[in-house]
Amino acid sequence: MDPGDTVFSGGDIRPDCPDRCRESTAIDGISAYWRKNTSSRESIELANLLRALRKVAGHLGANTGRIEYDGMSSAADGAIRVSPEWVMGQYPVPSEKVDPVIGHVVHEALHRMEWSTHVWKLLEPDMESMPPLQKVMFQKMVVTGEDIYVDRKSDLSVFGLYTAVLRGHDLADQDARVPSNGISVDELMLTWRAGLFDDPAVREPKPEYSELLDALNHLARRLYNEAGADWRVTKKCQNRASFYRDAWKQVEGPIKQLPVYHKQLYWFSRTSPARISPAGRTGGAKPGKPALPRPLVREIQTCLAADAVDITPLIRSVAGYDNETVEPMSRWDFNMPSRPVIDRRMIGRLKAVFQNYAARRTIVSRGLLTGRLDPGRLYRAPVNGRCFREDLRIPNPDWCIGLLMDASGSMRGIKWKMVESIIANLHKALSGDKNRLNAWAYFESGGIAMLSRLIKENTLMSVPPSGQTASGQAIIAAAMMMPKNRRQKILIHVTDGESNFGCDVSYGIELCRKEKIDLITLGCGYRDRQAMQEQYGRAIQFIDHFEQLPRAMEHLVKSIFLFGAKAMKSRFSNTISEKLILRTLLSKNHFTVVKR
After folding, report:
1. Are 386 and 372 in contact, with CB atoms under 8 Å apart?
2. How many CB atoms lie within 10 A of CB 556?
3. What is the pTM of this model?
4. Could you tell me which residue, 481 or 203, shows the higher pLDDT?
């Protein structure tokens, strides 16, 4: 017995829990203390709850498996399934519904962490020689024993509060399904587990079970000691399998005299076509009950992808859920430091551009000897003459600029070195004030489009250019990651070729138009100009050589501030403003423009 443990009438050994703890959690629910990220909208609330369940499983440890609602994917094996019926109907979901769901996730996750499946595999040779009815009885004992073992394991931490709530629901459900007239193996297992935890809602044990309960309680004490042991998980599995064999030898004779109501097998042999969950509870919806509707599943997946590694649902929400051209996309930040070449003259010129065209804020200086008369200070005129004021309009830079860099295989070498230098120069020029500069690089690896941040916690990072060009999906991802609360948002896309992987760039251009993001694409050292012009339309400008990129970027930023991105993308005409744009862009042969 461990220090601080309490022995209950049924032979239970579990840590003490203060009464005030159980009383406080019984009023509002346990999860009400920490689950504050709630919403009254169905899809957002279900996504927030699923995210919370995954965080709980993450605190348990590794090897817990996926957690998802029924209907979210076709692969049911290896995932902890949560029935939507448990949480749907009221939003935000009340904690009285959330607590048993958390208990279910903890219970199933611990089954995976403690390798309950391996215990069943170790017991397969013993079950093959058993008659069918005895095999059902033996499996009922193993299922209940594994549940008791997991209950004990969860009681060693705060997660035991959640499994206790789930256990109360499970025992009440079993009590309603098991007939009370007469004796049976089903009632024996129910009485055994309920008696260990002194559940008052379950029926009292009958005298006919006294001999069997003594043997089963001895098994429970061995399982309790095993749960607190500090051995390897494989040794624990071997010990538990040995405990079940020893207990079966003690109860085999008396238990064969009892009837069985629910003749369900919980585990099939290796030669069987299928296996049922060893825990005896899949967590899915009941037969005949519908799972989540597909539109709701898509909304939940989109909400979850907002802060996940896999952002494919975000791309599909824009390009279409049935769009076959959409490829898997993930964001993954590399820890490669950047080695840029800093051009201090370019930084100075960019700073001057940002200061000149920034918004202005007014600062009023009062009590001056010269300037404009201040009506509120006229009483000071005969005293000291300080009745003047001066209004100063100083720059208030608040730019939001995003750089999206093509890091495909064709950008290796000197091209990527120039890209790193451009990002570093813009980062230096925009540092301070309220400016925000975001930079991403995109490439393809193993059939997956990757998006990586190039500025992380004010540190410049880099990526190894590789793969194909997924410009369309990269523009969508960058546009969705830009801040929503900024008025003027500019996204500058630099690439050296047309998009040849993933969805078409037209989806990204349309998204930028809806989100009021000024998108400008710079085609540098292009291979097929006609193909790029067909893809991007008016949203692209060309430069002949990659060595022109630094100066071209400087002129592009200045021209956007002068004339706006819409004017930059307009067709060639004879208006004065467009002539000024072309004159700026064509200075020193930085751009090449095709007349139509």
Report:
1. no
2. 23
3. 0.77
4. 481
